[in-house]
Specification:
By secondary structure, the protein is an alpha+beta fold. Helix content is 15%, strand content 59%. The protein has 2 helices and 6 strands, in the order ααββββββ. A 6-stranded antiparallel sheet has the order 1-2-3-4-5-6. A hairpin with a 7-residue loop joins strand 5 and strand 6.
């Protein structure tokens, strides 16, 4: 934790604390129809990572950056998608997901 993390928490700014806390890790995701995972790193300035989702019918894999924009959290993703088993049909997708 840094001084900026602590002051953000004292002000009740949870988003600010999350973006100012340096951390890194890996994660796994599972569902009935897919599995996935990835890694992330927050160096106190940029919060970025990568992911794969391997489903019964589809595959997704790429990178993301987590940002705070106009008071909202945004996941800016750049990834490929294709029907399962058909990588020759891959499409590149750049999309923002607002939380």
């Amino acid at each position: 934790m840094t001084w900026n993390t602590i002051t953000s928490l004292l002000r009740g700014d949870l988003k600010g604390a999350m973006f100012r806390t340096m951390l890194r890790g890996t994660y796994n995701m599972t569902c009935a129809a897919w599995t996935g995972g990835g890694a992330f790193i927050n160096d106190g300035e940029k919060f970025r990572g990568n992911f794969t989702i391997n489903g019964i019918e589809t595959f997704f894999g790429g990178n993301f950056t987590l940002l705070e924009e106009n008071g909202r959290m945004v996941i800016r993703a750049d990834y490929i998608w294709h029907p399962q088993g058909k990588p020759s049909e891959a499409k590149r997708v750049r999309k923002d997901f607002y939380m």
